[in-house]
Amino acid sequence: MKSLPVFESLHGYQRSWIRPDVIAGLTVWAVLVPEALAYASIAGVPPVVGLYAAVPALILYALAGSSRHLVVGPMSATAALSAAIITPLAGADGGRYIALSAALAVATGIMGLLAGLIRLGFIASFISEPVLKGFIVGLALTIIIGQVPKLFGVPKHEGNFFEQAWGVLRELGDTHWRTLLIGLFGLAVVLGLKRWLPLVPGSLLAVLLGIVAVALFDLDDKGVAIVGHIDSGLPALGLPDGLALRDYLDLLGPAVGVLFIGFAEGLGAAKTYAAKAGYSIDANRELLGLGAANLGSGLSSGMVVNGSLSKTAVNGAAGAKTQVSGLVVAALTILTLLFLTGLFEKLPEATLAAVVIAAVIELVDIGALRRLYQVWTRLLASIYGHAARADFLAAMAAMFGVLLFDTLPGLLIGVGVSILLLVYRGSQPHIAQVAKSDGVWLDMARHPDLRSRPDLLVVRVEAGLFFVNADYVKERIQHLCTEDTRLVVLDAETSPGLDVTAAAMLLDLRNALAHQRIDFRIARPVAQFGDTLGSAEGADSPIGVYPTVAAAAADLPETPPTR
User: Fold this and answer.
1) Integer-rounded Cα radius of gyration of the chain
2) CA–CA separation, 34 vs 48, rounded Å?
3) Is the predicted pLDDT of residue 307 greater than 80, yes or no?
4) Residue pLDDT, tens place only, 176-212
5) Strand, helix or coil at 530?
6) Which of 42, 123, 214, 455 allows an S-S link to 486, with CB 3.0 to 4.6 Å?
7) CB of 146 within 8 A of CB of 80?
């Protein structure tokens, strides 16, 4: 009997992976703890709630998810979305606010599990690779600009990426030089070791050195911001107190939005590192993993969680091989809650910002966007240019959507533009005029040396025929006809689908060409094409259908007459 699909990233585990997984776990732990504290504050709950959320999220994602590298925990985007959802529902009641935040995680978890069980992972198909790339670049830039104020020791301004960047520029005159010095030192340690001594865990070393520097030189008394006090102890387990069934029902709708944005960000990070390591991601299992992580977080007095782009980058850069690194992080976080909260109280926020920036900066893949643009501008793209243009514009829409309007709107803009461009591309498919060469019918646009018979026009529509492109195809074929054309053959092999509107168009095209004394025939239709054509045209004067192009043109004389 096939084993249950749990902890699949651990199947075939090798002893040589223990060391890199443990080192990666230590490194991620050093970043996750202070980040979880900060993201809990963004969500409007006590900082320790971020640690409560991280432990079950890490364990349950490792159990159900498909990525070997993804780190699941509190994140800025879903934390901010949580605050926006809970604030109007809780009012000024702090206890109800905390309970509703945990309930939102429970609702998100339930929706994620349902989505995974009914296999809604196909939703990921609407997020194309260019959209995902643009989304990741925009999100990485947003994360970086959010960390820059901590690096310089200046106040952070709210707003989109550009408003935050302008805020940083305006505050540069008030830079706290000690904060900047320790932040730049941490950045130099991480980037320098990554380049010259990649086996040394630079992020972990930078964190330890930052804590030591604060302790030795009393930097916190000299204006360097540190993480501060953290409550110790394990969370209470179970459903949040004081809530009714109605509260959970009210949260199900908003939970779908939280799930979508968490799924998109986690999927992007998971796919990025899966591609580097040479394995695949199962979108349905990602939904199950995300659902289980959120449900576990909500039942542990936590908050909404999702796959973290920045911490996954830290995990991958530190050499993680499997989710053992995540389990190590979970174990260390439990120890932190019990015994080590004081260790991170002296961690400089500038050092934390340096670690995050160093991890995320490699995801600002401007080279990938440049390649999309170059494909668009190539001369050969003039034939199939719609696809290249659509991919580049969709990536740009997702990136600037995130930079201008925040994470969820940016992703929706990218997906929307991608779908619109897909429809546009489908409405104007490439229609190839083909000619025979050594028994093969070739596109004359790609082989300009070919010559066709003046009385025979053979065309190939390189897309399905449906209502969106029916009129365009008809007009284009009529435009290709000349005064000498006596026969038009549609090679339907490259048209895998046909709807009723397009079938009616083919009949109209046959009749219009007949008025010009031009015959119209169809060659090599696939099964669905032929079935739809036959059911649409009826028994009255059907269009001639032939097994090959040669058979369709067989009754033309060898020497075409001149009109």
Assistant:
1) 30
2) 10
3) yes
4) 999 999 999 999 998 998 889 876 778 778 888 999 9
5) helix
6) 455
7) no
The band of 563, judged by pLDDT with boundaries at 50, 70 and 90, is very low
Q: Which amino acid is at 382?
A: S
Condensed to tens digits (0 to 9), the pLDDT of residues 94-125 reads 899 999 999 999 999 999 999 999 998 887 77
Strands 71-73 and 306-308: antiparallel
* Element of type H or E holding 512: helix 500-515
Count Cα atoms within 13 angstroms, Cβ side, for 122: 3
Instruction: Check whether 469 has a pLDDT greater than 50.
Output: yes
Q: What is the mean pLDDT of residues 384-402?
A: 75
- List, in sequence order, the alpha helices (H) in 299-348: 309-317, 324-335
Residue 148 has pLDDT above 80, yes or no: yes
Average pLDDT over the chain, rounded to an integer: 87
Report how far residue 153's alpha carbon sits from residue 175's, in angstroms, rounded to the nearest whole number.
6
Do the beta carbons of residue 129 and residue 418 sit within 8 Å?
no
d(CA 502, CA 258): 40
- Higher pLDDT: 379 or 39? It is 39
Q: Let me know: does 315 contact 28? Beta carbons within 8 Å.
A: yes
- Both tokens of 459, joined, read 């065309």
- Per the CB < 8 A criterion, the answer to whether 105 and 74 are in contact is no
DSSP secondary structure, 102-143, as one string: HHHHHHHHHHHHHHHHTTGGGGGGGS-HHHHHHHHHHHHHHH
B/e letters for 120-136, b = 16+ CB within 10 Å, e = fewer, are: bbebbeebbebbbbbbb
Q: Are 151 and 180 in contact (CB under 8 A)?
A: yes
Distance in angstroms between the alpha carbons of the first and the last residue of the chain? 75
Distances (CA, A) of 125 to 21, 130, 388: 31, 12, 18
Closest CA to 318 of 424, 190, 446, 430: 190
3-class DSSP state of 415: helix
C-beta separation of 350 from 213 below 8 A = no
pLDDT above 50 for 381: no
* pTM as predicted: 0.74
Residue type, 362: E
* Region label for 44, one of left (φ > 0), alpha (ψ between -120 and 50) or beta (otherwise): left
Q: From 16, 35, 99, select the one nearest 314 (Cα to Cα).
A: 35
**Contact in structure between 72 and 290 (CB atoms under 8 Å):** yes
Counted residue by residue, the chain has a size of 563
Contact by Cβ (8 Å): 332, 26 = yes
Strand order in the sheet with 456-461: 440-443, 431-437, 456-461, 487-491, 519-523, 544-546
Residue 90 burial by CB count (10 A; 0-12/13-18/19+): exposed, middle or buried? middle
